[in-house]
Amino acid sequence: MEKQQCFPTIWKMKLGKAEQLTPHHFFGGLENEQLKNMDEQTFPFAEGAISAKSTSRGFLITLPLGQDEKLYGLGLQLQSFIQNGKRKRLRTNADATNDTGDAHAPVPFYVSTKAYGILVDTSRCVEFDYGATKRVYSEKSDRNEKEIAIRTETLYSEERRGSQVSIFIEGVEGAELYIFAGESMKQVVESYNLFSGGGVLPPIWGLGNLYRSYGPADQGQVESLLEDFQKEQMPFSMLGLEPGWQSRAYSCSFKWDSNRFPNPELLMQNVKRAGLELNLWEQAYVHKTADFYEELLPYSGDYEVWEGLVPDFALPEAREIYGRRQGELIDTGIGAVKLDECDGSDFTGGWFFPDFSQFPSGMDGEQAKNLFGAMVQRTIQQQFERRNLRTYSQVRAGWSYGAPMSFVLYSDLYDHGQFVRGILNAGFSGLLWSPEVRQCGSGEEFIRRMQTVVMSPLSIINAWMVPNPPWKQYDIDQNAQGILLETSELQDRCRELLQLRNAFIPYLYEAYARYEKFGTPPFRALVLDFPEDEQVHAIDDSYMMGDNLLVAPILNEGTGRSVYLPEGDWYDFWSGTRYEGKQHIVAETIEIPLFVRAGTILPLASNQSITKNTIFDLEIRIYGRQPRKTYLIEDDWISLNYKNGEQNDYELAVVEGELVIPKMERYRIHSQSWFD
Amino acid sequence: MEKQQCFPTIWKMKLGKAEQLTPHHFFGGLENEQLKNMDEQTFPFAEGAISAKSTSRGFLITLPLGQDEKLYGLGLQLQSFIQNGKRKRLRTNADATNDTGDAHAPVPFYVSTKAYGILVDTSRCVEFDYGATKRVYSEKSDRNEKEIAIRTETLYSEERRGSQVSIFIEGVEGAELYIFAGESMKQVVESYNLFSGGGVLPPIWGLGNLYRSYGPADQGQVESLLEDFQKEQMPFSMLGLEPGWQSRAYSCSFKWDSNRFPNPELLMQNVKRAGLELNLWEQAYVHKTADFYEELLPYSGDYEVWEGLVPDFALPEAREIYGRRQGELIDTGIGAVKLDECDGSDFTGGWFFPDFSQFPSGMDGEQAKNLFGAMVQRTIQQQFERRNLRTYSQVRAGWSYGAPMSFVLYSDLYDHGQFVRGILNAGFSGLLWSPEVRQCGSGEEFIRRMQTVVMSPLSIINAWMVPNPPWKQYDIDQNAQGILLETSELQDRCRELLQLRNAFIPYLYEAYARYEKFGTPPFRALVLDFPEDEQVHAIDDSYMMGDNLLVAPILNEGTGRSVYLPEGDWYDFWSGTRYEGKQHIVAETIEIPLFVRAGTILPLASNQSITKNTIFDLEIRIYGRQPRKTYLIEDDWISLNYKNGEQNDYELAVVEGELVIPKMERYRIHSQSWFD
């Protein structure tokens, strides 16, 4: 067991004989000034507290687990929040409907309320046992001889839990751990994100609203949709095309279908003229009709998916060949992609290569499965970066080292509560997640889901299954039949929500800029901001958007929910009413319950369209008597030049009761409101 | 690759270096005269058609898969029936809600409509890929360049499927296959069951009705329940007690709780006097308060489950120590047990030992997990057998070689359609399954579920969650509050169904006797009886009970369903109406649709109570003009003496238009009905 400090907050621990083809090998080792300059921390475990051994089937690592600490993380776990008492085997899987560790984007990283984090550097289906069981005799507990467990609650009780975390990797002889320490759990997450390469800063339009159009739509239908958006003032920034744009899918030809889309250049012009960016659906499975099929063949795995080659993205050759076509599409003006079905849905009738696949790089199917999403993301992102462009794309799989990847996760699942939990859990593991809106059972459900998605990393309506926008008919069957709603009420409310999203873009852009620079997740669980307040530890249905906004979506029918407000004063965003913290309040509203922290200077934009040329018109809201400084970040909105310092950091502050407004190029302040 | 013929219908194929602690090692190698005498078959694969290789992660076996053959099996798969196009990783798991191979009782055995079967002799979480994917270039198919898959149906289409079965076992260097051939798929299943040791013959009362009483019930409440059964003429043969009978659960003390049950002997007398057998709940996790805890300790795994020891049932010492207490309970008169939570619910907050456990026999956690249910079954069954007694118990886990085990599987899941599919799928793999009835959303649902369960391997009402019998109130909350239904209508219909079950016991006893002797599953999919009729290949919602009865439960609200009748004439059991086969009919009835094959001589009993002393009073129904011979089987109903030939096989036949009735001791025929 070798321990080596890599950064003031990070140690590497080598246990046994580690594998070569790990995430760190492919994605790690990035330099980061911020990380070097963090305050020195002490190693969070006592000497000898971590142990490891080879077993007949693999490698077992054990770490201590205190009765009073709580664990979070493991990536996009939609079914659970606090991980204590659970056993999970991480496996990339599209059908992650059980709380077993299967996930679109499982991440072998967890954090503790004791302000440490553990990253297991593996691409294996690693198993985590968080005190779910106890070793015989090693962990005695009170044995209450009279207790009869006949109720589920008793069976799940905490006192039955063990005091060890066990990490088991099958078929290996060792592994490397990265151990993170911090002043707080939030700082641990920040260290992990910086260690991954820092967070992502989206292009400005990426923070706007995305509409994915009907699967079978042709060019004419897409163009008339664009016209409707303009005519009906629906403020979208991105338009997504589904598989039908390609001449062959699934698997993909990566070529326009000349029947459906006879003039892609004209389409692109029209999209840009309408002030939108185009997002194209794809899958990383390459059909024989793709121009680069034969060239890719030697750099592919030995099993097909949907009759397509699976590129071995661990090889630079595969990344180049696949990336070249991506680059061509970017050169025609594509702003983003939707990277579908890269999440190992191998139990859905073989929508994935098997674990026993082999890839020419030496990766086996299990490794390739877990790293596949991350590797495709990097391959595509590099093509944007070579052109000095950012993207803000969609993807259905990820693993560790996700923070710098300009992709937001999504799912075919559709439980509203799980979708909200996903926002929180993604924030522990360097991931971004979107609770996308599709069809709904009622207009009310449509609005409730819209309220959540506009307050999430990616604001998207995914209408791939319906010919008409869901605000004209939320019901999938009636929509298909062209039976539309009689009033525009739903559309009007939907428009307001899309505008609400746009209003928050300057605030969000600053939050993402801090994500990029300091690793602070822009969307996160309350426990990261209020670790001392035990009442927030289990809250998985409200979250922080940036530092100052508490978002508490209403998940079900009805207009009310209970919201816990942590320490400090809070203002209802809609009414301006002030509440003291450390209490539960009942929010009764048709809006989404939003609470602004006292002391916030909140910029709100009134822009209808968000493009690379946008200059923001702002209302500034000032909450409480002791406003903290806040910042507005300005750059060219779309290139990577900010990495070379081409970015302005404007401070907004209240001095002697007056808002001091710096001179800015891309922000104009038209009004101020004060809340007391 | 070594191939060796073991029996006229069975070959063993040794591929690479096989593991030692396999199911065959523990459960196989039984002699069977019937198997020796089967007709010689030819090996079902061409020379070189089966291949195998070691990969970096395990061992991969491939077999050919024809486009026109269909595969079934893999144990208790509740989510799917035909396995073509699926990839499954078998893992014993209580929360088997996805179609991934997780199951209470996965079995590494499958059968083909081409009349062969493959048993993989492994206790590992083996993966089966049934043509889900294709190898690159090895399996060319038509590549339709214009096809755009935008609908789910297209994506699942058969033409995308590969022509190989792949079997992958991680972390091993080889495996043994047993390959079965037969005249028909049914004969293949029979061979597999005989190879496992032959089917089970339950004690006669095991074919009656079981009522599991309320969890917290005490002796007084249980005794008054018995009185109610007698007073209200509810014909039960077995009474089950839930965890509350023990002084400690979960894990178990295996001792009576002296507060709840001050006089177990008296209880036992009362149960027997009422004509019932007692079934006790247990878990194979041994709490410190069990008398044999210290003795068992050295023969246990290194992790606790619910603070209890996990016996290493691979060791004779563990079987003896655990079995001794079972034997003591049997000596007090216990007829059966319910063996709960032995099914690796390791993702439910650690309700199981981890895969990285070690057992003193050398078994690791993965092996122990998959064999655990089978091993506990054998341990308990041996205690009954030593006392020359049969049992018919309940269990929640199983694996291969299950046919001789006197246990019926059950689940906490509750989907009616899946429960019916379970009956069919269990029949391919030497398993028995019970779609138990618990609480219901409506009286109609209660009756529909009751209709299914009385036509299943074990007829059980599991009322562990409700203080009053569900026929007095099907709603769980109202039941708990003592708000009972105002009329006895539901109870009357329930009583009729329990009587219907009893009526079929002579018919079932004969079917089980054939299961025991010839391996013919008493409950099975239509495809086993009518393999030539392609219309039945996908039917997973109706099934054969014995040779002559087609059962087609109504799964949803309403009174109708479509039923496909295979070749031959069929008679509606209720109306006597005759239908021609090879057609779909609509069954409209408040009863369960049942169809009797033309030519059947069907015995129906009118007995209210089923005990070891039962003499059956029979009505004989004769369907059609050319009745086939049928049999009534008679023995002492409860001991193993039938294995020494102490069993009578009475032939019933129609000779010159008259039913010829043999002289029998335990059957009396009081009437005959003829259907034409």
TrEMBL record, chains A, B:
Gene Ontology molecular function terms on file: carbohydrate binding; hydrolase activity, hydrolyzing O-glycosyl compounds
Domain spans labelled Glycoside hydrolase family 31 TIM barrel: 201-510
GO biological process: carbohydrate metabolic process
The entry's keywords: Glycosidase, Hydrolase
Domain Glycosyl hydrolase family 31 C-terminal: 519-602
A Pfam short name: Glyco_hydro_31_2nd
InterPro entries attached to this UniProt entry: Gal_mutarotase_sf_dom (IPR011013), GH (IPR017853), Glyco_hydro_31_C (IPR048395), Glyco_hydro_31_N_dom (IPR025887), Glyco_hydro_31_TIM (IPR000322), Glyco_hydro_b (IPR013780), Glycosyl_Hydrolase_31 (IPR051816)
Superkingdom, taxonomy of origin: Bacteria
Database matches in CDD domains: GH31_N (cd14752), GH31_NET37 (cd06592)
Family annotation (SUPFAM superfamilies): (Trans)glycosidases, Galactose mutarotase-like, Glycosyl hydrolase domain
Residue span(s) of domain Glycoside hydrolase family 31 N-terminal: 61-129
PANTHER family: HYDROLASE, PUTATIVE (AFU_ORTHOLOGUE AFUA_1G03140)-RELATED, MALTASE-GLUCOAMYLASE
Record family assignment: Belongs to the glycosyl hydrolase 31 family.
Name this protein carries in UniProt: Glycoside hydrolase family 31 protein
Species per Swiss-Prot/TrEMBL record: Paenibacillus albus
Species classification: Bacteria, Bacillati, Bacillota, Bacilli, Bacillales
